[in-house]
């Protein structure tokens, strides 16, 4: 029997995550049945659960991957860029597959509200995003790019609240026509004038 390389294992794991992202975005956590996961990943349940203990572990791995991606974007380009990427990913709101990153974020938000165990496990990832946001803001403040009349922790919390508001807006399917301008305003609100 031929050996499977580490790269092939990683590619298969990523294939599962990508398919699961689409499935969770389209059907939500509860609606992402094993059968639907099989269909969207193109793999059998045995293959899926060879890599992930159960659906909960699969969702958590996906949410963790997205949280790391968000923290990376924040570190390089700021939290407003994360919001812009959510807007691009939301497209016109008609294709569930386009909502993949947003879909994961929505499920995380819902589960934070309804699942105390998940909320406890998720705190480290939330703290990572907050830390990345604050670190970037502190660098910008040191460079003189941020307004100096509001403390960095307040600016960070303002941006996090704007992110949650954007997610809520997109969730409700409200028009996204003017949101680029709104994000420009959010960005201007934290910058030195």
Structural notes for this entry:
The chain contains nine helices and no strands. Mean pLDDT is 88; it is low at 92-99. The protein starts with 5 loop residues before the first helix and ends with a helix. It has 193 residues and is mainly alpha-helical. It has helices at 6-31, 34-41, 45-51, 55-77, 79-90, 100-114, 116-142, 152-171, 179-190. The radius of gyration is 18 Å and the shape is elongated. The chain has one domain (6-190): Tetracycline Repressor, domain 2 (Orthogonal Bundle). It comes from Pseudonocardia acidicola. This is TetR/AcrR family transcriptional regulator. Keywords: DNA-binding, Transcription, Transcription regulation. Residues 10-70 form the HTH tetR-type domain. Residues 33-52 bind DNA.
Tags for this model:
193 residues; mainly alpha; Tetracycline Repressor, domain 2; 78% helix; transcription; transcription regulation; Tet_transcr_reg_TetR-rel_C_sf; TetR/AcrR family transcriptional regulator
Number of helices: 9
The parts where pLDDT drops under 50 for at least 5 residues are 92-99
CATH architecture: Orthogonal Bundle
User: What's the level 1 CATH class?
Assistant: Mainly Alpha
- Under CATH, the topology is which? Tetracycline Repressor, domain 2
Number of strands: 0
List the domain count as a whole number. 1
In what range is the share of β-strand residues? under 5%
- Look at the structure and give the mean pLDDT: 88
CATH H-level superfamily? Tetracycline Repressor, domain 2
Distance between the termini: 66 Å
State the helicity in percent bands: over 70%
InterPro entries: DNA-bd_HTH_TetR-type_CS, Homeodomain-like_sf, HTH_TetR, Tet_transcr_reg_TetR-rel_C_sf
DNA-binding region: 33-52
Protein name: TetR/AcrR family transcriptional regulator
Pfam families: TetR_N
């Amino acid at each position: 029997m031929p050996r499977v390389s580490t790269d092939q294992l990683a590619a298969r794991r990523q294939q599962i995550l990508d398919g699961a992202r689409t499935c969770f975005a389209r059907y939500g956590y509860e609606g992402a049945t094993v059968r639907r996961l099989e269909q969207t990943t193109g793999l059998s349940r045995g293959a899926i659960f060879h890599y992930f203990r159960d659906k909960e572990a699969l969702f958590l791995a996906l949410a963790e991957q997205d949280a790391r991606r968000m923290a990376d974007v924040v570190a390089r380009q700021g939290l407003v860029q994360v919001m812009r990427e959510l807007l691009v990913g939301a497209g016109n709101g008609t294709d569930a597959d386009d909502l993949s990153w947003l879909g994961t974020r929505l499920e995380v938000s819902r589960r934070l509200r309804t699942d105390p165990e998940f909320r406890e496990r998720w705190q480290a990832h939330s703290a990572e995003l907050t830390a990345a946001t604050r670190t970037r803001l502190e660098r910008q403040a040191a460079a003189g790019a941020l307004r100096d009349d509001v403390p960095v922790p307040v600016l960070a919390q303002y941006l996090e609240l704007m992110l949650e508001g954007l997610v809520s807006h997109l969730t409700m399917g409200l028009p996204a026509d003017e949101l680029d301008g709104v994000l420009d305003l959010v960005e201007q609100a934290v910058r030195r004038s």
